[in-house]
Specification:
Elements: H1 2-23, H2 44-50, E1 66-71, H3 80-85, E2 90-97, E3 101-102, H4 106-115, E4 119-125, H5 133-142, E5 157-159, H6 174-192, E6 197-200, H7 202-209, E7 220-223, E8 241-245, E9 253-257, H8 261-269
Parallel strand pairs: 1-2, 2-4, 4-5, 5-6, 6-7, 7-8
Antiparallel strand pairs: 1-9, 2-3, 8-9
Helix pairs in contact: 5-6
């Protein structure tokens, strides 16, 4: 009897091991793949890789542009009345990363900005190394990334930038990255009726998508820490938002919306 039990147990262990091999390695989020995620925000890796070229701490918006900013859990609770007094008209707030991280400050930041009259939207820090674009769009939508036609909510944004965990392009070639971004965009649009905004830098876009020109329908949120934007990625004739500095008069990164107040409201309304 003892030898039969040992044989049966050995057989079960072998079957279990074979199943594990067939399943492949565990996804990154299953074994701690979000270390430091609270400090990954729009531009955090761009500033590290591309540097900050004479980024102005203060850049006053001309009459035909609107001053705004973006924040994440990195900033902690935000003084929203203070931000409004300092001239903020809009804000993007990090909601999620991959399929396993949510911003612990999201409710304070998202609801607080709305309550003081800012037009606000949520963004998702892309992790193409963890799961597909469609899966991450659904996770984003389920954790604050939705959109409503209330005139106060911007379309959700996809933060596509350098990988803080490893290889620059998350282990994908250009075709794979384009397909991943397309899946995210298509899934988000099917759920909301809106193209998600794409946040990126021209250098990252060239390197990781081979400067793909197929996303001109998505609003462009371009990162360039300088007094001029410079070259845009292929497919876009103009930018919608420019992240021009990583610090300034508003909490978090500093942004300008490329248009007058009525155009900002139009973007929110869709």
């Amino acid at each position: 009897m003892g030898s039969k039990r040992v044989k049966r147990r050995s057989l079960l262990l072998a079957v279990f091991a074979a199943a594990l091999l067939a399943a492949g390695p565990a996804p990154a989020d299953a074994d701690g793949g979000y270390e430091g995620a609270e400090d990954h925000y729009a531009g955090s890796q761009i500033a590290k890789v591309e540097g900050v070229d004479a980024a102005p701490g203060v850049l006053y918006a001309p009459d035909d542009q609107q001053l705004g900013h973006d924040v994440s859990g990195h900033q902690g609770p935000v003084d929203w009345p203070g931000a409004a007094r300092s001239g903020a008209k809009f804000v993007y707030i990090k909601a999620t990363e991959g399929t396993g991280f949510t911003n612990p400050q999201f409710a304070q930041q998202y609801n607080g900005s709305y309550n003081v009259g800012l037009i606000r939207g949520a963004y998702h820090f892309a992790r193409p190394d963890i799961s597909g674009g469609a899966a991450q769009a659904r996770y984003f939508l389920a954790h604050g990334g939705g959109w409503s036609a209330d005139g106060k909510t911007l379309p959700g944004a996809l933060d596509a930038e350098y990988n803080p965990y490893g290889e620059t392009c998350y282990g994908k070639d250009a075709a794979g990255m384009v397909a991943w971004i397309r899946d995210f965009s298509d899934t988000y649009r099917a759920a909301t009726g809106r193209f998600p905004t794409i946040y990126t830098s021209t250098s990252w876009w060239k390197r990781c998508t081979a400067n793909n020109g197929g996303f001109g329908g998505n609003p462009l949120w371009i990162a360039r820490y300088n007094t001029a934007i410079g070259e845009l990625p292929a497919g876009w004739d103009f930018h919608t938002i420019w992240q021009f500095a990583d610090h300034g008069t508003l909490p978090g990164d500093q942004n300008l919306f490329n248009g007058a107040a009525d155009r900002l409201r139009a973007l929110a309304l869709g």
